[in-house]
Amino acid sequence: MRFFIVDCFAEEKYEGNELLVVLADRPVCDREQQAIAREIDFSETAFVLGGRRPNGGYDVRIWTPHREVPFAGHPTLGTAHVIRKALEDDQSNLVTLNLAVGQIPVRAHGDSLFMTQNQPEFGPTVDPKMIADVFGLSPADMCTDFPIQWVSTGLEAVLIPLASREALARATWDRDKFVEYTRELPACYCNHLFFVDDGTGQLSARCLMEDFVEDPATGSANGDLAAYLLRYRWFGSDDISYTVSQGEDMGRRSILRVRASIRNAGDADPDGGEMGSATYHIEVGGKARIVAEGDWR
């Protein structure tokens, strides 16, 4: 099987988030897919299962070293990049992935790719003091003008606004308190995206995951963040465009470009009530770089 190693949301090679993409030209059972993902030990590995289907999409499954996930951002971006290069002869500006969460379109704009994420779900809010205790911060490090909230556009994240870039750099797990926290909150909080706004239309972010691993670029969580920013009118607009710098604190600089809008917001509760007939359009994009390819035996 041909494989590719791709750096996703990377301005240059050896930046961004690493991904293994396998073009499966033979049957690959769940057990083998999981074993390959564990062998390479990247945060995710993607399998393209055959060619383009009658619905226009490519069947893709995504695995962490420990389990399958229904959607993840950088595997969607990187897999679409490989499909364009290896299967579409770089001719198509639209690649559709058939994922467990449904069809996800990825469009090329210049040298970047943008994926369209699903409509958001807004879940419970979390006590800022609890988050501060769990991640080695103080209540003063929290941006209390906005809630800490669970949001999903296909893969959930807890979105945590911080008061300063310095606080962002200090965030880390208190392992014992984190285990207790996950027991108290039965929902699967797989990503915790901390972010700070520098006031220039660029955000800085870090994503701390449930297996005590930091993610250098998290497309799914940044799609969640876009929905959150629109819901609470962070930028004071129903149409927003900004960049996110992620991974700098771990030496894997990533740049994510976000374009999003909301229509028919109605009389939304600013404290997190139902959005009624609101419709979101969320695109998260960036550059992808193939750094290696070969045969998986």
Give a written overview of the molecule.
It is a single chain. With 297 residues, the chain is an alpha+beta fold. It has two domains: 2-108 and 289-295, Diaminopimelate Epimerase, Chain A, domain 1, CATH 3.10.310.10; 121-285, Diaminopimelate Epimerase, Chain A, domain 1. Helix content is 21%, strand content 39%. The chain is built from six helices and 18 strands. The protein has helices spanning 30-40, 73-87, 128-134, 165-170, 175-184, 219-231; strands at 2-8, 17-24, 45-49, 57-63, 68-69, 94-99, 102-109, 112-117, 121-126, 148-152, 156-161, 191-197, 202-209, 214-215, 239-246, 254-263, 279-286, 288-295. It has an 18-stranded mixed beta sheet that branches.
Write the layout of secondary structure elements.
Elements (H helix, E strand, L loop, with lengths): L1 E7 L8 E8 L5 H11 L4 E5 L7 E7 L4 E2 L3 H15 L6 E6 L2 E8 L2 E6 L3 E6 L1 H7 L13 E5 L3 E6 L3 H6 L4 H10 L6 E7 L4 E8 L4 E2 L3 H13 L7 E8 L7 E10 L15 E8 L1 E8 L2
Parallel strand pairs: 2-3, 4-6, 11-12, 13-15
Antiparallel strand pairs: 1-2, 1-18, 3-4, 4-5, 6-7, 7-8, 8-17, 9-10, 10-11, 12-13, 13-14, 15-16, 16-17
Point out poorly predicted stretches.
none
- What is the chain-wise order of helices and strands? EEHEEEHEEEEHEEHHEEEHEEEE
**Separation of the first and last Cα atoms:** 7 Å
Count the E strands: 18
Provide tags for this entry.
297 residues; alpha+beta; Diaminopimelate Epimerase, Chain A, domain 1; 2 domains; 18-stranded mixed beta sheet; 6 helices; 18 strands; 39% strand
